[in-house]
Batch of 2 targets.
Target 1
Amino acid sequence: GAVVSQHPSWVICKSGTSVKIECRSLDFQATTMFWYRQFPKQSLMLMATSNEGSKATYEQGVEKDKFLINHASLTLSTLTVTSAHPEDSSFYICSARETSGRETQYFGPGTRLLVL
Amino acid sequence: AQSVSQHNHHVILSEAASLELGCNYSYGGTVNLFWYVQYPGQHLQLLLKYFSGDPLVKGIKGFEAEFIKSKFSFNLRKPSVQWSDTAEYFCAVNGGTGGFKTIFGAGTRLFVKA
């Protein structure tokens, strides 16, 4: 089946620094990738939809200047948490939708971010 | 606005008991429906999906779900659970007026007692 990877799986950083998280589709091309945030014991909250070669579409309440998304190729999307603060600590999950048009999304393993 | 609701936040069952997890959605148009499972410490995995056709969908590990359009429901079932089914289960919907954007329910934590 389709595989999506994320890097890093864990990151600890100091408050005020920026952190970049990569999401890659390993064996398929993904025109669209999605970024989610999952708080402890809660569901996934969609943050933004990332389309290759264009600007990301952010959900209401998500700061686009805080969470920078770049989808430069059909296999890579990045999420940069700028000037991270402790409240940004969370589990960030990406998913990718195949270019062929199937509606199934394949999820990455997630990145746990801890901001001190 | 599109929404997905899961009826139970926590379910505790003994092994061999039958399972039914409720999921209702609020979406306009033709939708695609999914159930995902997240085992402790692991990432989301697709259990089953419904796009069209037979409303009774069979997935992996003995799970099945039934799409009832008139009730806007997509309940997950398993006739006999195992200890290894302990996990969190998420219902998700996309399509219709929401396009490719997938909305997840709040999740149901299932704990199966051995």
Note: The two ends of chain B are 41 Å apart (CA to CA).
Target 2
Amino acid sequence: GENVEQHPSTLSVQEGDSAVIKCTYSDSASNYFPWYKQELGKRPQLIIDIRSNVGEKKDQRIAVTLNKTAKHFSLHITETQPEDSAVYFCAASRGSGGSNYKLTFGKGTLLTVNP
Amino acid sequence: ETGVTQTPRHLVMGMTNKKSLKCEQHLGHNAMYWYKQSAKKPLELMFVYNFKEQTENNSVPSRFSPECPNSSHLFLHLHTLQPEDSALYLCASSQDPDSGNTIYFGEGSWLTVV
């Protein structure tokens, strides 16, 4: 089955700096890669996703890049703010439509943005 | 956002108890899921229901028993649990499981088995 490795497990940055979280996956058939943000005591929420037919996607201060050949994808957060502090999870799935129910999650990255 | 609501939010139970977790979604979705979230482990998919039919059982022990009476409600019945079952149990829903639609999570039920 799919295996998703996520690094680093913890990341501390100064407000205004950029943060990068990387994930690798093992199943070359995976074609859907969402990122979830989970604030302390709250539910995971989708913040951005990418499908295998594109290499990069941006949404304001966040972006995701995908390298299918190397089987890795990354989350980039620019101009970090204290409210970006949370646990971020990457995930991968395969299927004709990008089957959500076969999502395999990484272990998460605890991002701390220091004011 | 209250699209997916879970009760109770916190539950402490003994190993011989029987309890249930409840999930309700108000999003008109057709698929519902149970996930387990333990410390320092990835989110683990437990069960998937699509149009009330169970389509996935991810090798979950029989002491966890799901029930989906309709597309809006999902239960997780718990009996004779072990301390290692203590975790955050997250319910989620999506429009359907195969189209790549966004999964929406509930706030979770914190379960402690003593």
Note: Chain B touches chain A at residues 4, 31, 33, 40-43, 45, 48, 50, 55-56, 90, 94, 97-103, 105-108 (CB under 8 Å).
